[in-house]
Amino acid sequence: MGFFDRFKSSQQEETRTAEQEHEQERLEEGLEKTKSSLFGKLDRLIRGKDTVDATTLDELEEVLVTSDVGVTTTLDIIKEVEERVARDQYVSAKELDALIRDEIARLMLEHAPERPADFSAPLPYKPHVIMVVGVNGVGKTTTIGKMAYRYRKAGKSVLLGAADTFRAAAIEQLDIWADRAGVPIIKQKHGADPAAVAFDTLASAKSRDTDVVLIDTAGRLHTKGGLMDELSKIKRVMDRQVADAPHEVLLVLDASTGQNAIRQAEEFTKSVDITGLVLTKLDGTAKGGIVIGISNEFQVPVKYIGVGESVEDLQVFDRRRFVEALFT
Known about the structure:
Elements lengths: L2 H10 L5 H13 L1 H15 L7 H13 L4 H18 L7 H14 L18 E6 L6 H14 L4 E5 L7 H12 L3 E2 L7 H15 L3 E5 L8 H17 L6 E7 L4 H13 L4 E5 L9 H8 L4 E5 L7 E3 L2 H9 L1
């Protein structure tokens, strides 16, 4: 029995609430384009072939790379496939599909945490301060609004800090999301000192006895030294107001950008102490294979994924349920 077969057997024993079933359905729908692209390419690769040879493996490598699984992860998969073909004497190309699924499942699940993140879980700090970073256009402000909604729905009090004072529409956009999520917001005028906004937000959170603080920051490129220095300043100022703040630094990445998301993750993790990743827009792209690569290649965990436009469509990233949705 292969790794994937054991995984399927374990999934049959899991019981879920109606809400969890709904989330799984949304995840499966969100990954539909990715599944059609990846497994469509695999099907075309296998069709008409009788054996797995060197040419087949070269073509498989191309399929995985062009499906945005990532070069490093692709090489890991190819290496394992080569070893298993040699060891188990797989000769039929028809068996390659099951073998690939087995290797993807193994890569994603062998080092999966026992428990994924949970909006309802007890928090180690009060207020628990989360700073959100990323380049413009990845869905950073939208992610903050959806996180605020999920935390409030889980019974926690939430406060937003509009520290992206660089982009003219950022404050107004976060204000709309605060209203949609039903949480308060601390803001100043466009062009104000972002560190001052963060400081005021934490001071207000302490006076209100708030559970969770979400701090928006200006969308920036890792090559912009001044903006990266600004992030360091915001962190120093917050630490003066709340010890060890920020307690989490989440990097938001747009899954539809494929390999560019991996490059952003590489560069940001060099410059900023990132504690978690958020992958957005999975529902609108065929490049969801990027989740496989990022999950395998980075020590920083993927915490949340976006699978739709609704305020409820930000999901806690559960590797097991992701694998199940990908292979359903």
